[in-house]
Structures are given as structure tokens and as C-alpha cells.
Design a protein that fits this description.
alpha+beta, 6 helices, Heat Shock Protein 90, two-stranded antiparallel sheet, 283 residues, 53% helix
């Protein structure tokens, strides 16, 4: 007796075996088998609907939690630069000289830049979550120049830290160089914040075996395996090893940039060093 789903698709056959001969072609027997087959089909549909409902419920819960995190983190992290701007306006109004007003203006500009970075991260987060991933502008680039610029910017931002760079890049790479620069900036900034303050941070980039490879290495306490599993989640802030300032989107955006390039980011953390490595196939 065929078992069919509610939409008419064939699932299987209901069979019964009895060692004793029996007359089966009767209304009672056929009706019983038809009823059993219908019950099985209905039960299969009910199981599928239940599984779908549970999955939708989990998705809704995850979305609700993410929304709550988004609002809480955004409200918290925008409050500080806004407070700095408000204080700066008051100080400029009371400033007794143009030089003092200019000094306050420089500090306010720093707050504006921080708010702009937060907003850029939010836009990238929205593109990654809602827009099917980050859009890339591909071109062939000599990435050594791009990466050198990122390292120079971070050296200027952390003048008391030692950043070593070694780029063995002798050919052009087809990629979105702006996004690769953003990826390095996020990884390097993360290493500078959470690596040992008295130890150097090293950046390496090579091309070989059909891959472009970019690594950021720092020394410091190793990252627990349970934390590594969650490092690239949006808004995730583990104890002592991920973003304690900012939205906590830096590593999430790193993973999105890697995915958009068809690559990946691997993390290795031992008592000797922590290494983040971005690998991307050469087009």
C-alpha cells in the first residue's frame, strides 16, 4: 500500500507479512491498510512541520537576542564619544584663547572619527547579515604597498609598540585591496590591544601554492579553545581576549571579508604565541 505525503509525493510502501495464508482483497483489509498508510503520511507531515516550527522559533530567538545586543552595545559605545563632543562644545565656549579652542577641536575630531568607525562597522555588519555578504571591488594589486600603509597607520596610533612587518609579495593579487587592508587593520589592532605590551607584534604576508597568506602574530596569554570557537561571532566579548571597547564586530567583519574572497581565517594560540592567518586562493 503506497504511503503518500500531504502534497501527494510518494514516501514509501506499507507492507505486512504473515506466515498464514489470508484473503486480503476485501474492503475491510484494504480499508485498514489505506488508513494506516494515511496515518503514517499525516504523522510524517506533522513531524516535518514541528521541526520547521522549532527551527523558526530558534531563529527568531537568535534574532531577538542579536537585536538586544545590538541596541545595548550601540547605546553604550556611542555614549562615550557623544559625551566627549558635548563636553568639548562647552569647553570651546569657555575657552580663553584660540590655541586652547584648537586643542579641544583636535580632541573632538578624534571622537568624531571613533563614531564614524562605529557606524562603518554597523554598516558592514548589516551588509553581512542582511545583504548576502560584503560586496567586493576586485582588481589586481601589489598588496605590499597596501599592507605597508596599514602598518604605518597602526604604528602612528601605537607609537610605544613595536610592529614588525615582512612581506614576500612579488606578484599582483586579484582582490579588493581596501577590504584586505580593513582585515589587516582589524587583526593588527586586535593584536596590539590584547598582546603583551612589551612584546612585538609581527605581520607576515606570502604567496605560495596557489594561495595568498596574511598572518598577524603576537605574544601573550593563550586564548582558550572555547573562546576561539566564538571569536568571530558578532558582538561577542569574552573575558580578556576579545573586544572590550568598540562594538565587538572587528573579528566578525574579518571573517566576512575572508568569506567574500573565498578564503578563511585560522587561529592558533599557544603559550608561546597567538597567530591569526587569512588564506585566500589566487584567482
Amino acid at each position: 500500500m503506497p504511503i503518500r505525503r500531504k502534497d501527494g509525493t510518494f514516501f514509501g510502501t506499507l507492507c505486512a507479512i504473515d506466515p498464514k495464508p489470508a484473503k486480503l482483497n476485501t474492503l475491510e483489509v484494504v480499508g485498514m491498510f489505506e488508513l494506516f498508510a494515511e496515518l503514517i503520511g499525516t504523522h510524517l507531515d506533522a513531524i516535518e512541520q514541528l521541526s520547521s516550527s522549532e527551527a523558526n522559533l530558534l531563529d527568531e530567538r537568535a534574532t531577538a537576542e542579536l537585536r538586544e545586543q545590538f541596541i545595548a552595545v550601540l547605546g553604550h559605545d556611542l555614549r562615550n564619544p557623544l559625551a566627549s563632543l558635548s563636553s568639548g562644545v562647552n569647553l570651546i565656549q569657555k575657552a580663553k584663547s584660540a590655541e586652547r579652542a584648537a586643542e579641544i577641536g583636535v580632541a573632538m575630531q578624534s571622537s568624531v572619527k571613533r563614531m564614524a568607525r562605529l557606524i562603518d562597522d554597523l554598516l558592514d555588519f548589516a551588509r553581512g547579515r542582511l545583504g548576502g555578504g560584503l560586496a567586493l571591488n576586485y582588481d589586481k594589486e601589489l598588496l605590499a604597498l597596501v599592507l605597508d600603509q596599514v602598518v604605518a597607520e597602526l604604528r602612528a596610533g601605537y607609537p610605544d609598540r613595536n610592529i614588525e612587518a615582512a612581506f614576500a609579495l612579488t606578484q599582483e593579487v586579484r582582490c579588493d585591496s581596501g577590504r584586505v587592508a580593513q582585515l589587516l587593520s582589524n587583526l593588527l589592532g586586535n593584536a596590539l590591544k590584547y598582546g603583551g605590551p612589551d612584546t612585538p607584534v609581527r605581520v607576515e604576508a606570502t604567496i605560495g601554492q596557489g594561495e595568498f597568506e596574511l598572518s598577524v602574530i603576537n605574544k601573550g596569554a593563550p586564548i582558550p579553545a572555547t573562546t576561539i570557537e566564538r571569536l568571530f561571532l558578532p558582538f561577542y566579548r569574552g573575558d580578556g581576549h576579545v573586544m572590550t571597547q568598540g562594538l565587538g564586530l572587528g573579528l566578525y567583519i574579518v571573517s566576512q571579508i575572508a568569506n567574500a574572497h573565498g578564503g578563511r581565517v585560522d587561529v592558533e594560540s599557544t603559550p608561546e604565541q597567538t597567530r591569526f592567518t587569512f588564506r585566500m586562493p589566487l584567482a
